[in-house]
Specification:
By secondary structure, the chain is an alpha/beta fold. It contains 14 helices and six strands. The protein has a six-stranded mixed sheet with strand order 1-3-2-4-5-6. The longest helix is centred in the last third of the chain and has 15 residues, at about 190-205. The protein is elongated and about 70 Å long. The two termini are about 40 Å apart. The relative contact order is 0.10.
Length: about 240
């Protein structure tokens, strides 16, 4: 199947193209609007040949061997899980750079290890050329907030809506240092149910253990309280300071 668009920078002169081999970049992003913003950014420096695919099937059927593949998280997950041999072929020949949002980081941690680099569409996609150059060298530029405790807290706060009411209360009480029996008494549930709730909280918010969950809940008491009240949702979002990449 023919990719729907193959672009060579119009700004590059014939002499420049001959003097410098243009980098061939394939795009297969989850969001068409994001594609429309990334393509001009890549074209800006006039040194890329760009091929854009609609979906993973076009990429797997293509015989192209690009220097780099900019791929959305959903597309990359489908490639890894459904087309492992195609992934191996591509990873041997091209650098694979996954494009995702910051709130997807914890959920995607298990699969991001199979990519050469990451780009966060809501943080540093405007530096796409710099990030692509780093990715081709096998490096990844991480936004500094992800290297701090509060940065990871900020991601977890965006994941709170996936908790049920009982799970949310369990998390809040873990922040008070309570054991399962005491939490069960306070919530009028069985200890076995609370044990299951704790496991669910750890899984949904990607905590390693209950101690880590309790420390998070204690540190973010104000944000958790704000999350309970729809009118305080804005306060919850502001409870964690945002760092710049």
């Amino acid at each position: 199947m023919t990719p729907y668009r193959d672009l060579v920078p119009e700004t590059a002169s014939h002499q420049t193209r001959n003097a410098v081999n243009p980098m061939h970049v394939c795009l297969i992003l989850d969001n068409p609007a994001l594609t429309e913003s990334v393509v001009p950014a890549l074209e800006k420096e006039g040194r890329h040949r760009i091929t854009v695919f609609h979906d993973i099937s076009e990429l797997t059927q293509s015989s192209l061997t690009p220097d780099a593949i900019l791929i959305g998280l959903q597309q990359f997950t489908a490639l890894r899980e459904n087309e492992p041999m195609v992934y191996l072929r591509l990873s041997r020949r091209s650098r694979i750079v996954v494009v995702l949002s910051s709130r997807e980081l914890l959920d995607a941690a298990h699969i991001l290890a199979f990519a050469d680099a990451w780009v966060f569409e809501d943080i540093n996609v405007d530096r796409i050329n710099e990030l692509l150059d780093l990715g081709l060298e096998g490096h990844c530029l991480m936004p500094k907030q992800f290297l701090s405790r509060l940065g990871v807290d900020e991601i977890r706060l965006t994941l709170l809506p996936r908790l049920s009411e009982a799970e949310f209360e369990t998390l809040r009480l873990l922040g008070q240092g309570l054991n399962n029996r005491t939490i069960a008494n306070q919530l009028d549930l069985s200890e076995a149910v609370i044990k299951s709730m704790v496991r669910s909280v750890l899984s949904k918010l990607h905590f390693r253990n209950r101690t880590e969950a309790g420390v998070f809940a204690a540190r973010q008491q104000g944000a958790l309280q704000g999350a309970r009240d729809p009118q305080g949702a804005g306060d919850a979002a502001r409870a964690v300071p945002r760092s710049r990449a």
